[in-house]
Amino acid sequence: MAMLRGFGARYGAGAGGWNWSRGSALTPRLRDGDSSRMNSTLHYLDIVPFKPSLTTSYIHGASCMPLVSKTIGQYFDETVNKHPDKEALVFVRDGVRKTFGQLKQEVDQMAAGLLAIGLQKGDRLGIWGPNIYEWLLIQFATAKAGIILTSINPAFQAGELEFLLKKVDCKALVCPLTFKTQKYYNILKQICPELEKATAGDLRSNRLPDLRSVIMIGDKLPGTFSFKEVFEAASSSHHEQLLNMQKKISFDDPINILFTSGTTGYPKGACLSHHNVVNNARYAGYRMGYSWREARICVPVPLCHVFGSVGASLMMAIYGCHLCFPSPSFEPQAALEAVPSERCTIMYGTPTMYVGMLGQKDFSTFDLSTLEGGILGGSPCPSKLAIQIMDRMKIQEITIIYGTTENSPVSFQGFPQDEIKRKTETVGYISPHVEAKVVDPQTKEILPVNTAGELWIRGYSVMLGYWNDQEKTKEVITPEGWYRTGDIGTLDPYGYCKIIGRIKEMIIRGGENIYPAEIEALLHKYPKVLEVQVIGVHDDKMGEEVCACVKLHDGMECTAEELRAYCKGQIAHFKIPRYIVFVKDFPLTATGKIPKYKLRENLERELKLRPE
Questions:
Q1: Least confidently predicted of 118-132, 167-181, 392-406, 513-527
Q2: Residue 453 near residue 438, CB atoms below 8 Å
Q3: Which of 223, 271, 273, 313 is most exposed by smallest CB count within 10 Å?
Q4: d(Cα 546, Cα 516) in Å, to the nearest integer?
Q5: Is the pLDDT of residue 501 over 90?
Q6: What residues contact residue 559 under an 8 Å CB cut-off, 6+ apart?
Q7: 515 vs 446, which has greater pLDDT?
Q8: DSSP output for 376-404
Q9: How far is Cα 53 from Cα 63, in angstroms, rounded to an integer?
Q10: Please, which contacts does 20-24 make with residues 24 or more away whose CB atoms are closer than 8 Å?
Q11: CA distances (Å), 594 to each of 361, 458, 522, 585, 606, in order?
Q12: DSSP state of 311
């Protein structure tokens, strides 16, 4: 990847475990010199429940730790003032290291640069790329400038990109020159041919009427700004403007739009505020012990997902954690190599990522002795896998989290010191200041404990809504403020949650959310296809794989390879069906609907994807 050289590198249950006894608060075993933090640690009780207290499936995360009214920028600046010379992050592959002081200087410089090219508070800026330093720099720069960051999956193709940019009326787009097989400038030109002849900052596109600026990370191309140009664009007046902006930004302002799944149709943009994400990161980090633990987090999860942008970036901003990004996208070998070389103490990952790491042939040769804890999230985790991770990676303080992008994201989270059954068979205990209830999907009445129903969430963490889509927002958020997750779960008498399945038809493949209707719409355009149903089928490694059931027009012949070739370049690679099954008819209910759950059962049996 072509980068800006000569620019100051680039733009200038081990120690500390828990001691606890039944009936007493959990007290961290602090290292030498940490006694000054003991009082603040014990002040906010967030402890494992020791006796059953629920008779119905409703729980509130009571906590002495109050919600805060700070913005991302305020928290970030406070942390920088505490640790200006502490190393904040490293992007191993690119050789980028920054202290908190260096990071703040460059964040403020970039934020002022964005104002200099005409962006204003409330404008939307899209970022489309992998885990590189510029991604994180833009995340904090937009937060400082009051610009709403729109996260775009780096694998998205032209049609997917066009939909997202138009949905949020994006005014600016940041992307690298290339990543893997993606040539971002060329893909953008497919939907914006005017780019080549445009003046940087004054793009006029028929299909993207709001897009004005394209910022390329690397070389300057026709019609675009280079990242360096924007970084250096600010004058003293723009820095003054940035300072004044800090007084105008409210913690209730929207700050991030992340596209998430739906049961039908195209992705929807979940709009989150400073208040949403700051408090969620604060409570999730506190439960992990980041208020007293010297956390060095290995981050193989993508920044374009809420796991990375909240679970990693904001943990650094709030708790002063050190972030280690092993590679631009997940590579199991790189993640394992980063642990000893960067002395990582915490590992993040989806179940699929952990499977990838455990599956390395030379896994036993890696020294993982510095690891103290880890987080599992992004998709359902089999209990067997959680046990394997604890055993083979020697991470006893592993925690499973449950949440949705619409809930900023964490709603349930285990405690590092939970006993093994809770740790591996549940998604943990309710998060502070969050309400949850399990209701009958039909009557909406609260169910008794240990009874399966739909999980609903309410509290500070619920999104502001789907951007520019009031109808879809009303479908998932009730007038009383409950977010309907579409997931089937249970609550036990202690308040621990199990996720059993999903009402939604969304497919989760290795942590990636995939929307069947989007793939169905594409395949329906193929001349030979009469009807298609896309479902998720079980896969031991990825959790789920995409399966397309295709009915052809009479007299037509087609192969799976032919349909996959048709999909290539039109949708992201992870959405292209692994299984394509040709059928003569679909099963129908009495009302004429196709029961996808039945289709899934039949296909998993035929494809022998589950043990008998």
A1: 513-527
A2: yes
A3: 273
A4: 8
A5: no
A6: none
A7: 446
A8: E-SS---HHHHHHHHHHS---EEEEEEE-
A9: 16
A10: 20/48, 20/417, 22/50, 23/50
A11: 43, 33, 19, 10, 18
A12: I
**Contacts of 106 by beta carbon, 8 Å cutoff, 6+ apart:** 11, 12, 98, 137, 231
Decide if pLDDT at 14 tops 60. Answer: no
The phi and psi torsions of 383 (rounded to 5 degrees) equal -60, -35
pLDDT above 80 for 515 = no
Strand 512-514 to 507-509 pairing: antiparallel
Is residue 90 within 8 Å of residue 96, measured between CB atoms?
yes
495, 315, 504: which is closest to 404 by C-alpha? Answer: 504
Q: Are 137 and 11 in contact (CB under 8 A)?
A: yes
Query: Which pLDDT tens digit goes with each residue over 255-266?
Result: 999 998 543 457
Tokens standing for 335?
Answer: 């993640």
CA distance 336 to 347: 10
Express each pLDDT in 182-232 by its tens digit.
999 999 999 999 999 999 999 999 999 999 999 999 999 999 999 999 999
Better pLDDT: 506 or 535? 535
Q: Is 415 a residue whose pLDDT tops 60?
A: yes
| Tokens 């003569």, residue located | 584
State the SS3 of 200-244: CCCCCCCCCCCCCEEEEECCCCCCCEEHHHHHCCCCHHHHHHHHH
3-state secondary structure of 269: strand
Classify 246 as helix, strand or coil: helix
